[in-house]
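Lab notes, practical 5.
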Amino acid sequence: RGKDLAGRLNFETLEHNLARLGGDEFTVLLSGTKSAINIGKVAERLIEAIEVPFDFDGKEHHISASVGVAVFPGDGNNTEDLIKHADLAMYQAKKKGKGCFEFYSKEISNIVLERSHLEQRMRVALEEGNFKLFYQPIINSKTQEIASLEALIRWEDAELGDVSPGHFIPVAEEVGLINAIGSWVLQEVCQQLRAWQDSGAMGLKVAVNVSGKQLEKSDFSDQVLNNLKKHNVPPDSLYLELTESAVIHGEEGVLATLRNLQKIGVKIALDDFGTGYSSMKYLKQFPITKLKIDRSFIMDISSSKQSREIVSAIIAMAKALNISITAEGVETKEQEELLEKMACEHAQGFLYSPAIRVNDFNNLILAKLQ
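Output from the prediction step:
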């Protein structure tokens, strides 16, 4: 395999050395060029050569590579700095997807350092209990009463200030912290549900956002069941909200997990519906009980005929499949009235309430549900 690869690389007149650093990391040392274009071409040929299928033990196999480039002397004047900076560039190349290369820059170094600091602060937040849950109501369109709540994680850090979930959740997924964070969220929600139900809100349901990384864990359904049992919460009080991206990866394992949860009695919702290229596939394949129409369609429903037609079609399809429907991002009375005419069952958005703290919610929930 190594000889075949060397032959396909065809580095022409460039002097080069190829060495294994350890694990699945290799270093190519090039000399004889100062052209970034030539270096880029070498990186492309390297990736293309590695991606050629090869036979092993009678079976065809495929691998891919991500390449980071550091150039002497601008990116370092010693071996240690060059390798470190090439490694940082390789990390950025991996973020772009398989089969990519990236040149080192100071901007990349700053991004990686910021990410490293964010990871360190997340670990502190988990240890010290600095994450909080806020809850946003989902309204029954006919009665205008609270039908359920969505639990939303918030993080105010002593050093970083308010950190958006859209910023820290992807990093948590990359560094392996999402399972610990997700486990904490599940525990908190079940504990809070028990407290609310003990106060008389017996029909209250709460939705929890679940990452694809959590679903890939073989014991995830057991984790959900154990939390429900520990806090004596009826399984149908809990909705797990998934994005399409969460179910795309590892479909067979994810499908088995979702079916186990369905058997337990937990409800499954598909979030941000309408934005994925194959959403219809998941309605047929996965045990989905609720669709949440993405806010991008609701945002211009008043001004865009196309958005109105899309929303109307989604609602009609959901009803035909006996799937509950929720419109996300409702902010105006006009949007609410249009959705009511379309017979949309539930709505969620700033028109009704932002996500608020548990203490602020208690009186509101008890007043609505007792």
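Observations recorded by the TA: Residues 293 and 307 are 11 Å apart (CA to CA). The longest strand covers residues 146-157.
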